[in-house]
Design goal:
Number of helices: 6
Shape: globular
Number of strands: 9
Helix content: 10-25%
Distance between the termini: 25 Å
Radius of gyration: 18 Å
Strand content: 15-25%
Order of helices and strands: HHEEEHEEEHEEHHE
Strand order of the largest sheet: 3-9-8-5-6-7
Length: about 210
């Protein structure tokens, strides 16, 4: 997907705008869909070849979700949980994954940062190799829904190797609300250490 995105982006750059022609008017739908990679600052978060795969667009890791073909609306309103694939997963181990928004309600004012969108434990390594994960869901998947006029939000997926014989659970307080989650304390409490892999994508309110 990343290669396809790069090809489409290169093709777009060689298209009508690059040739100095006027871009299409709003009533004229664009024929080119741009898949733009994240800039160097945000790209540094993407480590370990972790893939987050949605229908039609494929792996959106380390990319901006484009507005074309209503992809931003569909990721916020239609599509369910993505496939998550990590080819380097060890079959004999179990893993934990978490998807958070560190920019809630906005990147400029993240007072509810680490809004929890998905939390799954006890994922067999064999499932991660195929992308069809099965595990114990502690937080059901919640679609990315950036508020209007809040700019781009980062949606960060972290994958941890789960310590053996550790029962991972959310506290009663954490069950009440997924917002303003003390993720670092959770990671420390259950001795998760550093992620074995991580990735993120950026999107914003689909009508902005």
């Amino acid at each position: 997907m990343k290669l396809l995105g790069a090809v489409l982006l290169a093709a777009g750059l060689l298209g009508t705008v690059a040739l100095g022609e006027q871009p299409p008017r709003p009533e004229e739908p664009s024929r080119t869909c741009f898949f733009q990679m994240l800039d160097s600052t945000d790209r540094d978060f993407c480590r370990g070849d972790l893939e987050i795969i949605y229908p039609e667009v494929g792996d959106v890791g380390c990319m901006y979700v484009p507005k074309c073909h209503q992809y931003r609306r569909r990721i916020s309103r239609e599509w369910g949980s993505p496939r998550v694939r990590y080819p380097q997963a060890e079959k004999s181990k179990k893993y934990l994954l978490v998807l958070v928004d560190p920019d809630a309600p906005s990147r400029a004012n993240p007072r509810s940062r680490f809004w929890r969108h998905w939390l799954v434990t006890d994922i067999p390594g064999a499932d991660l190799r195929t992308g069809d994960i099965k595990g114990r869901v502690l937080t059901d998947y919640v679609r990315p829904t950036p508020p209007p006029r809040s700019g781009y939000h980062r949606y960060q997926l972290r994958l941890y190797e789960q310590p053996a014989q550790v029962a991972i659970a959310l506290s009663p307080q954490e069950w009440v609300s997924p917002g303003a989650w003390a993720m670092e304390s959770f990671v420390k409490q259950f001795r998760l250490g550093s992620p074995v892999a991580s990735t993120q994508f950026l999107t914003k309110y689909y009508e902005d």
